[in-house]
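Milestone 3.1: sequence recovery, worked example.
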């Protein structure tokens, strides 16, 4: 299963693709690729920069057809990063929303394309605090450099690549692992019929605030 994680902003977007069906000697999922997506014109207006990056994200989606897409969403304390600059935070939120919509549109198009091999696919926004647990970015970068020898912090001054890798790895190690746990209350019947990917998506939706009834309705709508 291929996991794509995105750490968006209006100036660059960290991206990482992992394949958890293959593992390295240290047990880490195989790294397909990771890097920074930058706008074609760095000095363009903010919405033009974001639009340029969504084009590259669409190409990435078409090339790798990930099963799971994760978009980091700012936690409530993110304003501290912008030192009270409300406009900067608004632009940042716009970038996140644009990436989210880009991925959702790709999923919709893929589901209706006769050329697409149908598989369980999902896209979720993940609150930053849910996976970082507020560990300092510098610490997260050191952890990533130990797990992925090809990662170079010197090429990632903002830590955006590291965060995309960390988000994807969190999904593989945390959400996927929990998918093997007993069914959440109220989902006992449908849980047995779900694939591992679908269970992972279901757990993410529960974290996003879906009720049991809403989740069952969603699963009935998207599961063949």
């Amino acid at each position: 299963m291929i996991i794509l994680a995105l750490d968006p902003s209006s100036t660059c977007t960290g991206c990482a693709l992992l394949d958890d069906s293959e593992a390295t000697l240290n047990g880490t999922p195989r790294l397909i690729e990771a890097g920074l997506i930058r706008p074609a014109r760095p000095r363009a207006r903010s919405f033009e920069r974001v639009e340029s990056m969504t084009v590259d994200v669409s190409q990435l989606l078409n090339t790798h057809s990930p099963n799971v897409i994760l978009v980091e969403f700012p936690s409530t304390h993110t304003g501290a990063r912008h030192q009270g600059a409300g406009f900067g935070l608004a632009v940042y939120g716009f970038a996140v929303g644009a990436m989210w919509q880009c991925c959702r549109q790709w999923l919709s198009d893929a589901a209706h394309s006769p050329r697409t091999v149908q598989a369980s696919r999902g896209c979720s926004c993940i609150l930053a605090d849910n996976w970082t647990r507020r560990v300092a970015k510098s610490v997260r970068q050191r952890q990533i450099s130990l797990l992925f020898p090809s990662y170079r912090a010197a090429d990632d001054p903002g830590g955006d690549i590291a965060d995309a890798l960390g988000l994807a790895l969190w999904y593989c190690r945390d959400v996927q692992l929990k998918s093997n746990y007993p069914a959440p209350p109220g989902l006992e019947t449908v849980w047995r019929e779900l694939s591992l990917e679908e269970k992972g998506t279901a757990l993410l939706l529960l974290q996003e605030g879906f009720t049991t009834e809403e989740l069952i309705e969603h699963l009935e709508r998207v599961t063949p």
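Residues 86-111 form the longest helix (26 residues). The beta strands are 2-7, 13-23, 29-37, 68-73, 122-127.
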